[in-house]
Amino acid sequence: MPGFGRPGVGRAPLLTTRRTAKAPSLLTAYVLHRYDWSESSLILDVFTREQGRLVVAAKGAKRPYSQLRSVLLPFQRVHLSLGRPPRVAAANAQSSDHTTRDVQTLRGADWAGGAAMLTGAALFSGFYLNELLMKLMARQDAHPLLFDAYAQTLPSLIGGDDVRVQSALRAFEITLLQQIGVLPDLSLVTLTLEAVDLEGRYVLRPEAGVAPARSDDVSVSGAMLIGMQAALLHGSVSALQQACANALPEWRSLLRGLLHYHLGSSVLRTRQVMLGLQSLAPLLPTAVAAAHLDSDSRPS
Predict the structure, then answer these.
(1) Do 46 and 95 have their domain in common?
(2) Does any domain span residue 13?
(3) Does the pLDDT at position 263 exceed 80?
(4) Cβ distance 269 to 131 under 8 Å?
(5) How high is the pLDDT of residue 92?
(6) Does residue 253 form part of some domain?
(7) Residue 294 — very low, low, confident or very high, per pLDDT cuts 50/70/90?
């Protein structure tokens, strides 16, 4: 028979099916924020390593004897198993309320280990990181390297060493900006793509990237930019923190402008709370955290 044995000739076409990737049965996560949903349940904003930010309904989590009460805590690594969206999500699927439209149901949660609970100034620094993630990260967009950086940053907030804490916060801000795709290559002048000069002075402009500094600019050296880019490419959180520690005031100023620009008109609640504490009780130990949060700046 003519054409016998040739693909697509003299025989019916083969039907193929495409298998969709199966979501992992367990997700590794941190709770970023929690909202009341009903008298007994919560809506959680969680950061997972496998699927990015998710909104999850924790039914019965507020009940006195629920095992979830001691597990769904901020800054503690947990393993989550999720089920179908709850009825509230389906009912609002066509509405503009994205808080409920994409919500999933929590089936179970277990503590997965982690650092000691944050307290005092460290607690506010941790909430600052959480707020940055919620305002700058899109939902359902996985960033495993950012997740790992977050996990490694939390222990650095404990201990009261100002340089260590501020270096950790600045390093996380840089990692976050890089991971969401808004940080330019720090080894190149953005507009010309020329390599930065080791001895030159440069700034980070929100709309122009790495640019030569003017005489009145707060700037960093080309050598520092190259070192920071190398640390980013290596993926070392400790190297990033050390690079920030070498020029903390300068990085604080540069990152302030970038975060202000990308946050838009959003006002960070952690910043407002700390400024309020400073004005009410400037001598309280907790008030020192406002200095750590200074890079987010003045988004209003």
Answers:
(1) yes
(2) no
(3) yes
(4) yes
(5) 40
(6) yes
(7) very low
For residues 37 and 97, the answer to whether their CB atoms sit within 8 Å is no
Higher pLDDT, 21 or 169: 169
What is the arithmetic mean of pLDDT over 243-265?
91
Q: What is the mean pLDDT of residues 128-139?
A: 94
Residue 9 has pLDDT above 50, yes or no: no
> Do 271 and 172 belong to one domain?
yes
> Do 162 and 58 share a structural domain?
no
Query: What is the four-CA torsion angle of 245, 246, 247, 249, rounded to 10 degrees?
Result: 40
Highest mean pLDDT among 73-87, 108-122, 247-261, 270-284: 247-261
Domain that holds residue 33: 27-111
How does pLDDT run across 212-228, given as a tens digit for each residue? 999 999 999 999 999 99
Ranges assigned E (strand) in 172-223:
201-205, 209-212, 220-221
- Please list, in sequence order, all residues whose beta carbon lies within 8 angstroms of the beta carbon of residue 165, skipping any fewer than 6 positions away: 121, 122, 125, 156, 157, 159, 292
Q: Are 166 and 132 in contact (CB under 8 A)?
A: no
In this structure, what token pair is assigned to residue 93?
A: 């699927």
Q: What is the CATH number of the domain that holds 220?
A: 1.20.1440.120
Beta bridge pairs of residue 36: 42
Same domain, yes or no, for 163 and 259?
yes
The closest of 153, 122, 174, 124 to 47, measured between CA atoms, is 153
Q: Which alpha helices (H) appear in the chain, and where do they start and end?
A: 87-91, 98-101, 120-136, 144-153, 162-179, 222-234, 237-245, 248-263, 269-280, 289-292
Tell me if 268 is assigned to some domain: yes
Q: How many helices (H) and strands (E) does the chain have?
A: 10, 8
